[in-house]
Amino acid sequence: MAEMNMVEAIRDALDIKMAQDRDVVVFGEDVGYFGGVFRCTAGLQEKYGKDRVFDAPINESGIVGVGIGMATYGLRPCVEVQFADYIYPAYDQIVSEAARLRYRSAGDFTAPITIRTPCGGGIFGGQTHSQSPEALFTHVSGLKTIIPSNPYDAKGLLIAAIEDDDPVVFFEPKRLYNGPFDGHHDRPSKSWAGHPWGDVPQGHYIVPIGKAAIRREGAAVTILAYGTMVYVAEAAVAATGIDAEIIDLRSLVPLDIETIVTSVQKTGRCMIVHEATLTSGFGAELAAQVQERCFYHLEAPIARVTGWDTPYPHAQEWDYFPGPKRVGKVLVAMMEEI
Amino acid sequence: MSEHGPLSFNVPEPMGRPGDEPDFSYLDVPRAGTVRKPPVDVDHQDIRDLARTMIRVLNRDGDAVGEWADPVEDETILHALRSMIRTRAFDERMMTLQRQGKTSFYMKCTGEEAIAIGQQLALAPGDMNFPTYRQQGLLLCQDYPLVDMISQILSNANDPLRGRQLPVMYSSKKHGFFSISGNLGTQYVHAVGWAMASAIKGDTKIATAWIGDGSTAESDFHAALVNASVYKPPVVLNVVNNQWAISSFQGIAGGDSATFAERAHGFGIPSLRVDGNDWIAVYNVSRWAIERARRNLGPTLIEWVTYRVAPHSTSDDPARYRPRKESDAWPLGDPVLRLKNHLIKRGLWSEDRHVQAEAEYAQEVKAATKKAESFGVMGGGSTARDIFDDVYKDMPPHLREQRQKLGV
Lengths: 338, 408
Ligand SMILES: Cc1ncc(C[n+]2csc(CCOP(=O)(O)OP(=O)(O)O)c2C)c(N)n1
Known about the structure:
The structure holds two protein chains of two kinds. By secondary structure, chain A is an alpha/beta fold. Chain A has twelve helices and 14 strands. Chain A is 35% helix and 18% strand. The radius of gyration of chain A is 19 Å and the shape is globular. The N and C termini of chain A lie far apart (47 Å). By secondary structure, chain B is an alpha/beta fold. Chain B has helices spanning 74-99, 113-122, 136-140, 146-154, 186-200, 219-231, 279-294, 326-329, 335-345, 351-373, 397-406; strands spanning 128-130, 207-212, 235-241, 244-245, 248-249, 271-275, 300-305. In chain B, strand 4 and strand 5 (248-249) form a beta hairpin. The termini of chain B are far apart. Classes of the chains: A alpha/beta, B alpha/beta. The complex binds thiamine diphosphate. Thiamine diphosphate (TPP) sits between chains B (134, 182-184, 212-215, 242, 244-246, 308, 312) and A (29, 58, 60, 82, 86, 89). Thiamine diphosphate sits between chains B (134, 182-184, 212-215, 242, 244-246, 308, 312) and A (29, 58, 60, 82, 86, 89).
């Protein structure tokens, strides 16, 4: 075991896979010599050489497109898009090419590419360094979409993603790179040191894709969250004292619907928390699936607490995404429904 | 068995990394005044060499020489020098502001001041720049209010953009400054479309597009070039080659294989490569390209060769990826010093006036900063109510409901 923050855990995963498998290559803007603007790839070029870890031109469609080409040859590229906000230029390559290659060639060609990208707000990043575009990818068949919430999962899920034979979009909540987050902007950020999920096993292990984690067991209500919002949910539960069960989805597609259904049938209530905007967000999908499977168990309407339906603001970000107060208020209101 | 050896591919490397001696031997710097000036209606085929060489006017002695040394009015050139000093004072102060925790972020243009200020002074009211984040000079050489500019950086109650944009992502239609997108390259195409619209409307306004060397790799750069080549709208396509894109040197964007100016050749767009640290060259080449646009002669691409002296942004430490003293070794010098020496030589300026101007602008920026801070710092003064306006022209019911939920 070793104390790691999420950046170190991601680097460790890449290091282990590169050492194990010569087919793993890593590239993206500034990831080579410099080791990435968030330092996730620091030291890898020195260790594995320039033909396996290198800087890419600022051209996201090129990064993903080149990665797809390599993957079809038989390599396992793990590319970085510097911010999730810059994944849009690559969207066509991800959606029209990576996602469908296996299907349209009847399995003749495949693109096992992993696309890592930092997402989410809370760091004063403004509109172009804060977005959570995961729903845009969950809507596309042929892709897997993953969002870890802690160093332990980040490492195990990233190794699983690189080993996966399908294209994976791997979102890294940048607010969690250095420590967990309690949703309050006026409190100093904590470090992962001493946190149970900052304690990361050395060497190779995987966290299976498609398996959610129950972060807190409870009987009164089920909260579905992922990434940063897991901590906001925890803080809201602590503040209200409501006996909620918190489920960290970890993987949105494939979704661990069984764990969700078992929990909601037990608690009779379901709340969904995400940072992305409400309308057509992943919460809508969750609500629909829970409703289909748990309707007769529900004692209150399913609630969604999310970012507002506006672009991401710079100065007002703490009013934009859900915090413990907003979540707590809805939790309390849900418990009052009969 | 193949008769060939194993294949290889190339990952370009810069001339120097931390600990190395700076080395700019890849850069050919012709003597000032040696590159010819063609007529504005020249055929692009006849100036292909101008995309490879470098147009320079100011020589080592501070004289403006050669065919590109068209006379510039005293008033204009003095305004340019003052604006460059002012821009530097502004950058210094804003950097401090970020270090004091009063703003989240800042980006300097140190060493590149001549480019924005040279081109803006050659433009006419009504023309539209589609800038990136390193052209603060476009606003600072116009009458744009300093307090508003700093308020944007502070995201405070006086911020014209109501706290919504990252600091330095200004917007002012009135000053020909299109709202900046943080997504690199996207607006290069917009400039082409705007220029086409001006032509469709029978107007006389032209557009300018701005992009960095690194961002020329974006597909949108190529989309802009193909559209400019087909429709030949009145647009000036600027590439600011400051050698670095965060930690990646210009070779990672393909700059080692061909100059950025040469990329225009495949599109049949006339293209020039210019010393961007030479204000007179910037101004006169801009005038040439703008004249072409206004006379319906179509687009021009200009590569401005310069150096990013400052860190990429306040989140960056260039000592981690380039030789520490690299900016001192930059062969094209400091644009402010070069123009200053020229003006002193012409008897329009003096060392004393320079020192005085530096103090004056430092003072002006300081006072404006103080005033701006009175409206709030680091988002202070902006309100959560501002989140919901301007998403649509009229606020739809679901946003009204969400605003109520937030209780603002
Ligand atoms: C589409 C997109 N990809 C990546 C980024 C992140 N990014 C911001 S600035 C930058 C470097 C740009 O370099 P260059 O175009 O040379 O301009 P310079 O900063 O040198 O002025 C990068 C990669 C971005 N803003 N947008």
